[in-house]
Amino acid sequence: MPIQKNFIRKLWWDTRSGTALYLMLALQFLNFILITYNYLIEGNTIFGNVFFNLWFFAIIFLISYIPVSILIGRWHRQNQIRVDATIRLSQNPVMARMFRTLLDTQTGKATKEEIEEFRKMLTKIEKKDIKEF
Fold first, then answer.
1. Is the dihedral of CA 27, 33, 38, 39 positive or negative?
2. Which of 122, 102, 98 has its CA nearest to residue 110?
3. Residue 105 belongs to a domain
4. Looking at the domain assignment, is residue 81 inside a domain?
5. CA angle 118, 123, 126 (to 5 degrees)
6. How far apart are CA 21 and CA 14, in angstroms?
7. How many domains is the chain partitioned into structurally?
């Protein structure tokens, strides 16, 4: 079986996505809990009496953190994601090519070859069979 041209790049993308979206979240939680407990709670008479062990502190932290992160995520989805999508769309050469071809088709400037190439590209996208544009 021949190796795909971008196989290594796809593996690299999957590694970065899995790390950034899932593994780093867990590691950041663990890191924050351990460092905060070590420097703020342990040895401090005020906080040490309230959070008597690491597990109790971790549970209280997660119980308070999760609702706050849900609220921030909801705000992001309702307000900021439009801006993010607009910026990504304006920097996407594939999308620019598709919109240009659509515009050229509507205004009669596109050749039959360009229209057929555009149709093939859209079919590949629909089938998720994109190897290279």
1. positive
2. 102
3. no
4. no
5. 125
6. 10
7. 1
Residue 133: inside a domain, yes or no?
Answer: no
Q: Is residue 109 part of a domain?
A: no
Q: How far is CA 111 from CA 71, 102, 106, 123, in A?
A: 50, 12, 11, 18
Question: Taking the model in full, what pTM does it have?
Answer: 0.54
Tokens coding 88: 């990504």
User: In the structure encoding, which two tokens stand for residue 122, read together?
Assistant: 């859209």
Count Cβ atoms below 10 Å from residue 6 Cβ, excluding itself.
13
CB atoms within 10 A of CB 110: 18
Amino acid identity at 126: E
Neighbours of 114 (CB within 10 A): 15
Give 61-76 pLDDT, tens digit per residue.
999 999 999 999 898 8
Domain with 5, as residue range(s), is 1-65
What sign results for the dihedral spanned by CA atoms 100, 101, 106, 110? positive
Q: What is the pLDDT of residue 3?
A: 62
CB 62 within 8 A of CB 29: yes
Structure tokens at 90: 């304006």
